[in-house]
Amino acid sequence: MTNLIEYEQASDEVRAVYDDIRATRQTEYINNFWKAIANHPPTLQRTWQTVKEVMTSPGEIDPLMRELIYIAVSVTNGCDYCIASHTASGRAKGMNDTMFGELLAIVATANTTNRLANGYQIPVDEQFKNQ
User: Fold this and answer.
1) CB atoms within 10 A of CB 16
2) CA 68 to CA 90: how far, in whole Å?
3) Do 31 and 74 fall within a single domain?
4) Tens digit of pLDDT for each residue in 19-33?
5) Whose C-alpha in 45, 48, 59, 83 is 20 to 30 A from the C-alpha of 119?
6) What share of the chain has pLDDT > 90, as a percent?
7) Which burial class, exposed, middle or buried, applies to 71 when counting CB atoms under 10 A from its CB (0-12, 13-18, 19+)?
8) How far apart, in whole angstroms, are the C-alpha atoms of residue 71 and residue 103?
9) For residue 131, what are the CA distances in angstroms to 36, 61, 69?
């Protein structure tokens, strides 16, 4: 198991990222994902900047929808940690049990039809191209 870098043990570089996570998320909590990748500060910095930009910057996709997308990808990729953390975040942003169930039904359906399309090597219809 990877060593988790606590704030008190962290270098100044890591503490700066932790402080930004806390400020951005308005919490004192730093989760184990960040503590684990803090073992390589450049990866911590790069990953936090990307997550911060994609998940918190204003845009056309609202914060709850971003979490739902993240959960869907995490389910497909089989990332238990990401499923748990983004489900908690989704619930904090308004996701309820019914929405979660609908999301998982969509993920399951998409995975089934994707595998069928790939297995049968179905050519893309002309009307679907360049949309």
Assistant:
1) 14
2) 7
3) no
4) 999 999 999 999 999
5) 83
6) 97
7) buried
8) 9
9) 41, 19, 21
Tally the domains of the chain.
Answer: 2
Same domain, 39 and 66: no
d(CA 85, CA 21): 15
Residue 52 lies inside a defined structural domain of this protein? yes
| CATH number of the domain that residue 108 is part of | 1.20.1290.10
Q: In b/e form, how buried is each residue of 75-102, taking b as 16+ CB within 10 angstroms?
A: beeeeeebbebbbebbeeeebeeeeeee
Last-in-domain residue among 28, 57, 86: 57
**44: containing domain:** 1-57
DSSP at 8: G
44 and 79 in one domain? no
